[in-house]
Amino acid sequence: MSTTLPLFWHLSSANKKERLDASVKLISALEHFQSKFVPKESAETSEDEEDGGKDPKSDGLDALNAQDVSYSIRRLIRGLASPRESSRLGFAVALTELLSRIDTVTCSQIVKIVLESSKTQGSMTGQEERDMLFARLFGLTAVIQSGLLLRDTTLPSSSTVASDLDSYKEVLAQLLALGEKKSWLRESVWWSIGLAVDALIASNVSWKEEAVDATVSAIYSEVKAWTPEKVALTLKLQAAYPSRDWKKLLAPTFKNPDLLSTGNLATLARILKESDADEDQETDVPKSGSWKPQVHFVWDMLLDQVLPQAENGRASKGSFPEFFRIVVDESLFASTSSPERKYWGFQVFQKALPRVSADDMPMLFTKNFMRSWINHLSNSDRYLHKAARQVVTDIQNVVKSNPRIGFSLILQLTGVNGSRQFDKLTKTKTVESVLTSMDSEGIQSYIDYLLKQVDDESSPETTDIQALNTRRAWVIEQLAALIRNGAIPKDDAWIQTILDWLVVHGLFIPTKKAEKSPILALRSVPTPAFSEELRKNSRERLLGCLAELTAQTTLVKDGDKAAKLAAVASDGRFWVSRVLSTIEQLQKDTKHVRPLSEVDEDEAELLQKAHQLLARLKDVPEENRETAKGVELLLSSTLVHHYCAEEDDADTETLESCVDGASRLFPAESKKSKKSRKSMGEDKGKEKELPAPIDVLVDAVIGFLEKGTAYMRAVANQVFSLLSGAVQESTIDLILTQLERRDPEELMADEDEDVEMDDEEEQEDEEAEDDESSSSSSSDDEDEEEDEEVNEEADLELRRKIEEALRVNGIAAATGESDDESEEELMDDDQMLAIDEQLAAAFRARAGEKGRRKDVDAQREATHFKNRVLDLVDVFVKKQPTSPLILRVIFPLVELIVGSGPDEKQLADKATGILRNRIGKSKDVPTSVSKEDVAKTLEELHILARKASTGDILSTLNQCSIYLTRVLLHHDAQEPVQKAYRESLVDFVARKASRLNPPFINDFIKRYPQAAWNIRDDLVKAPSKALNGFRQAQAFQFVSTLVNQLQALGDRKNEILAFMPELRQAILDTLSNACTGESSLTPAHAKEILKLALLSVRQTKRFTSSADEASSIWEPSKWSDLSSKLASSDRFKASVGLQAMCKQLIQLLQESNTAGTKASGKQKAAKRKADEVAAEDEGTAASGKKAKHKKARKEKSG
Fold this sequence. Notes:
two-stranded antiparallel ribbon; flat; DNA_pol_V/MYBBP1A; ARM-type_fold; DNA polymerase phi-domain-containing protein
C-alpha cells in the first residue's frame, strides 16, 4: 500500500487533468497487484481493518482481492462522502473504473459497503447529511456505470454470479427512496435510474424480463405522482417496450398512451412546468429548493422525439408546432408564468433553435415568446435581460453557420408576432447582424419580401392610409439600411434593384404595369399612389445610398489585373452613372411612367448638353482618363442632385458651371471654321479672362462642401481625388482662400445680401403669379404665423423695455382707455428727446442679441466648412506627394493652426495631422520647385517658431521645417537652410523670450549632419552669446549632437581636425569663466560640457595619425590648469568628479595610439582600440564615483 497511498491525495485535486492522471496511475497499480495475487483458502485478518473493531470478513473482499485492491475499494467508497475540494468526483471516477476492471467482486458486496458507508444519523449536521446522501448516490451510480449491476459472469473459482435480480431491485429501491428523501436530489437520482434502465435494455441477463417488470411496477404502481423525471423514464421504456399496456399504466393522468399526442400536451405542460397536474395555475414563487436554473434533462429527450436530428434517421413523433405552442409558449411563457419558468423557456428555445429547419422557423417565434423576449431585451433592468441577450447571440451564431436560414429569421423578427422596428424597440442590432451573415440570395429574397409589403392587399393596413404610409416608410428605410450597412456582402444585382426602385418612386409616378421590364419597380403599380412625403423620402434615401456607395471601394477586375476603386460597381461604372442611366431610360418610357415635374426649354437644353458631354468623356485619351473620370462623376452627381432637388432648392448655376468647365477642359473636336483671324483672336482674349476650367470644376466641388449634405461631401472628396492630378496653382489658391479667417460680420453681410436677393425674387414671383398661388400664399401666412409665435417671447421682452422707458419719463403706456388728445398734450419736445435715447438703446440691445446669435451660428458653419475643405487638402497631399504645389499649402495651414481659437480646436487638429502625418512623414519630395519660394517659406516658418505659443505648435513647425529642409537639400540649395537655422540658433541662445526648444535644432543636426556641419562655427560660437549657463549648456548639447555624427560626414578629416581646436578653446573659455564667476554655469552643466570634451577627444584620436597630433590639438597642459581652477573655485571645488574628468581627458591624450596610426587604412584596429579606451575611461569614472561616495559617507559620519 505504500505505493498507492500517495495517489489518493491527488484524486481530490481541483484540476481535472491531475485527477484523471491520478486515477490512471492508481488503477494501473491495482491491476498489477491483482494480477500477482493468489487467493488463499482461509482469509487472514487485514491489518488496515483492525481499527474500529469491525469484522474484516463481513464484506468478503479479502477472499479474492489483493490487500491493496480491497483497501482501495473501501477507501474510494468512504471518500465519496468527503467534502474536500473535488474528492467526490475524483473518487467516483476511480471507483467506477476499478469496478469495471476487476471481476472479483459482486454487486451485492459493493452495494452493501456503499449503504453501510453512507448511513445518516440524527446527530449529523445538515452539511454532513448532504455529504452522506451524495455519497450514496455517487456510489450506486458507480455500480451502474461500471456495468457491475448487470454483470452475469461468475467469480473466479466460484459459482457465485456477480449480479442478480435481487441486487438490481435493491439498487432501484434505494435510488427511489433517495429521490423521495430530498426534492433537490430527485432529478439526479432519476437520471441514475435512467442509466440503469438503459443498461437493462442493452443487456442480455437471464432475469431481464423480471427486472423490466420490477422496474415498471416500481415506477408506475408504487410511485403515483408524475414528475418530469417520470416522463423521461416513460419515453425510454415506451421506445424499448412499445407492446406493453401503456394506456393502463399512464391512466388516469394521460388519456392517450402516446405522451406527445395533442390531447396529452396540456397535462404534459403542467408536469414540465413542475406544478401539480391537477392545478390549473401555479404560484409565482416555486417551492423551496425545487427550482434550478438549468433546464431539466427531459427536454432534450422530448426535443429528440419531436425534432429528431438528421443523422439519427428517426421520424418525428407528434406535432412540433402544437408541442411548442402548448408546452412552451402557453405554459412557460404564459403571462402568469414566473420569471424562473420564462428563464427555462428561453433555454428550451435555445435548444430547439439549431434543430429547426427554415420551413419550421415560424413555429419557434410564437406570440408569447416574442412578447417576453422583446420586453426583456428592451430594458437592461429587466430580470431576464441577460438571458434574452443570450438568445440573440445564439440566433446570430445559427445564422453564421447556416446563412440560408437568415431570411426566415428576419421574417419572424419583423413579422406578425415581432415588430418592424425590432432593432429600435429592443435597442439591439439583431436584424442588422442577421443580414450581415446572409448570402446574396438571402438578401435578394429579403428585398423581394420588402417590395411585396409596399402594396400587400392581404394586410389589414391596406384600408388604413396612415398605417399603409407608415409601412411603406419602413420599407424605404429597410432598403436604404441594406446599402448603408457596410458589413452586408454587396452584390450589384440587388443594389441596382434598390436604386431603381428609389428612382421610380422618388422621381416618377408609375401609371401602368410593365411585366417584362428589367426595372423591378415597374412590374407593379402601388395603389393608392405614393404620397408626396414618401416620394420625398425616397429621393432623400436615394441620395443617401449614393453617398454610401460613393464612399465604398470595390474590387474591379480588368483582365489579369485587379484594383480597388471607389464609387464604382464591379464592372467599373460609377453608381451615380448607373442611376442616371435609369433616369434616362424612364424619361423615354412615357407609356408606363410620367415624371413628377416638367422641365422648361432652357433647362432641357442644359440637361441635353450635360448628357452629350458625358458621352464625349468616354472617348478621352488614356493619359487624361483619370481626370475625365472625375469630371464624369462630378457631372453625373450634379445631374442626379438636380433631379432630386426640391423646387425651392433647384439651382441650375452649379450645373451650368460644371458643363462650362468640363467643355473647356475637354473641348469637342470641331471642323475648321471660316472665322477670320481677328475673331479668333477675340475668342482667345475672352478665354484668357475666364478662370481655368479646372478652377471652375473645383469651385463647384467647394460649392458641394458648402451645402454640407452627406451626398455632397462624399461626391466632392471622390471627385477631387480624381481631379487632383490636373490642379494648378490657381486651384490650390482657390482652395486655400476658403481657409482664410473672415470676420463673422462679413459672413452675415453676405448672407443678408443673399436673403435680400431671395426676397426680391420671391416678391417678383408673387406679383407674377398672384392669381395662381392663393393656396400657397395662405400656407405662407401660416408659416409667418408660426414665426411670429416663435419670436413672440422676444417681442414681449422688447415691449417691456419700451414701456419701461416711457414710464421712466412719466408717460404711461398706451391703452384702449386713454385718448389721443391727452397723450398729445403730455408729449412735448423735451420729453421726446428724453425718451429717444432710451428707446434707441432698447432697440440696439435687441438687434445686438440677434447679431450675436447669428455671429455664433455663422462662425460654427464656417468652421465646419473649413473642416471639409481640409479634407480636399488631405486628399491632394495623399494623391500627389511629388507635386510642387504641396509647398504652397504648408504656410497657410500653419497660419490656420496658429490663428485658430479655442472653438476651432478640431480644425487645428486636422490641419496639424495633415502637416505632421501627410507632409512631415512623406517619403517623396516635389520634383521641381522654386527655390526662392521654398526658402521664403522656410524663413517664415522659423520666424513663427521663435514666437510659437505652445509646444505642440512648435513641434508641428519643426516637422514642417525638416520637410522643407529636405526639399531644399534635394535640389542642392543649402544656403537658405543654413541661414534659417543660423538665425534660429542665435535667437535661441541670445533672446530671453525665444520660444524655440533644443529639439528644433537637434532634429536638424541628426537628420542632416552634412548641412549642419556647414554651420559648425556658429554652433561653437553660440555658447559665448548665451544669456545664461543653462542656454550655454544647451548650446554645447547641439555641438555634442554634431560630434556624434562625424562618422556620417565622410572624408572630411582636415576640416574635422581644424574644427577641434576651436571647440577646445570654446569649452576652456566657458569653464574658465564659470570658475571666475562670470557665468552662471552649474556643476551639472559643467559635467555635461566635460563629457563633450571627452567625446571630442575620442573622435579626434580616430582621425589623427599619432598621439602627438591629438595632444597638440587638445593641449593637455591647459586641461591641467582647468583642473586646478575647478579645484580652487568656490562653486566647483566640491564637485570632485569634474576634476576627475579633466584628469581622465589628460590620461586619454597621453596614452599611446599605436593601434590607430593608420586609421584610414585599418578601421578594425582603430575600432578595437577605441573600445579599449572607452572601457578604461569607464573604469576611471567608476573609481572616481566610488571615491566621491566614500567622501560623502565620511562627511555624513563626521
